[in-house]
């Protein structure tokens, strides 16, 4: 198709929305595995998804590179030919990797870049989706597959006067491609989640002054990033099959097992040694040291206090250390950021920490940020304020199912899905890493591969059986939600005001959006559904 006939109607077997990790792998499986004609739409001008948009200083992955990448499910050759340079890869390297994947598997020719899906309507008579794009294009397809990621619609708080600011302001999730030079500038950073914690140390090294507005302190864990040695790379490559097999079965899709012991079953000094060892290793291992950290408040408090101790050790001013030490939620009930020198940043002369809970931001003014305590004059504002996670982007696609029911209406009180992948009244719609699937509560790539493989196997089955439509039944959906809610309620996770429960977006229905029953358990459930002829789905 040439640029002149971009708006012409087109019919394909499948439309995929998004060209990040999930969209790329889905396209490969549909086109090269199943021979289905596929059109991918991507709002960005290149592949990459999250890694295309999030170009802020310090952006890097919090999962280790060797397992935050495609497994042998995509290609064993790719594993051998790609070498990561750092233990936790930075954004530019992950973007290069995804660009390489797109070229290596000749994926670009079926991706329409710079094109946003603005509507998708199910036609029940025709048994087709009609997908509309912002360039006036229209495509019909039997299957609609969303690969839009979980954190792709930015949350820009509606502060009074926000647009009156005279300086430059940027949300981390839509960072300028040419970068931002903060040299000599006074910078306000709003937000101290995983993004703010990565960005603040970098900006502090450049700017004249950084004022950090922190509403909720987090339990940040040592990142422990370092270069990958050739020996490590070889060892990993030799062991890849076993590593991937493990990631598919563990609770969080990491090749680490959760220790089979409770926190209070060991003496205090031994527990401390266990925490110290995990801390020294860096990354999320600390969360796997005991099996009840997310289940038992007293167990959790041992890890929380260990982390508060680390903050007190590293921050010179005891008052600032107390401001940085969380006490209003249990450890890991908000996603803990990984940090590399974050706490030491607050020992710098050019960094000021503002407690935006005690003195909330009242307004953005032409000169800066105003709180109850006064006005902070700055040249730049960075909004590290997160995302309307999991449902935000799905809603923006304008999806309507049978009888014109909008997804936004059906989910007005919260997501209603079967396995987090399908929803009744929306036949032939598959949501990769959708709400109520493990998604953000896991190593994303493992969960993405599981969803893509499951959908591809399902479509193969439909083709072999001559089935035109697949739709989750109401009963299966109700049962999945009941199970999801039961599993959620058994954990401490609903206690915190996190984006995992939708608390960061005013008016968003509160429920735990990801499924926390575990990656391995979830995979077993999905496999079982398939083995029983797609139990819980109506196939017609
Ligand atoms: O967003 P967040 P993020 N006034 O929502 C604050 C993933 N990630 O972009 O906690 C004042 O966590 C808000 O305060 P509070 C990772 O899964 C992955 O940092 O709501 N402050 C919070 O401090 C992560 O969890 C990697 O009280 C306001 C911050 O803004 C997810 O992305 C790297 C405010 C938002 O924190 C999101 O992280 C980076 C207001 N009105 C991120 N509104 C990887 O490694 C919000 N805040 C792959």
Structural features, described:
With 540 residues, this protein is an alpha/beta fold. The chain is built from 16 helices and 20 strands. The strands form five sheets. Strands 1, 2, 3, 4, 5, 6, 17 and 18 form an eight-stranded mixed β-sheet that branches. Mean pLDDT is 96; it is low at 1-8.
Describe this protein with a few key phrases.
540 residues; eight-stranded mixed sheet; globular; FAD; oxidoreductase activity; monooxygenase
User: Rounded to an integer, what's the Rg over CA atoms?
Assistant: 23 Å
Total strand segments: 20
Let me know the average pLDDT.
Answer: 96
N-to-C CA distance:
33 Å
Structural class, judged by helices and strands? alpha/beta
Distinct ligands, ions and cofactors found in the model: 3-acetylpyridine adenine dinucleotide
Question: Segments where pLDDT lies below 50 for 5+ residues?
Answer: 1-8
Number of helices: 16
Note the main sheet.
8 strands, mixed
Proportion of beta-strand residues: 15-25%
Please state the overall shape, judged from the principal axes of the Cα atoms: globular
Helicity, in percent? 25-40%
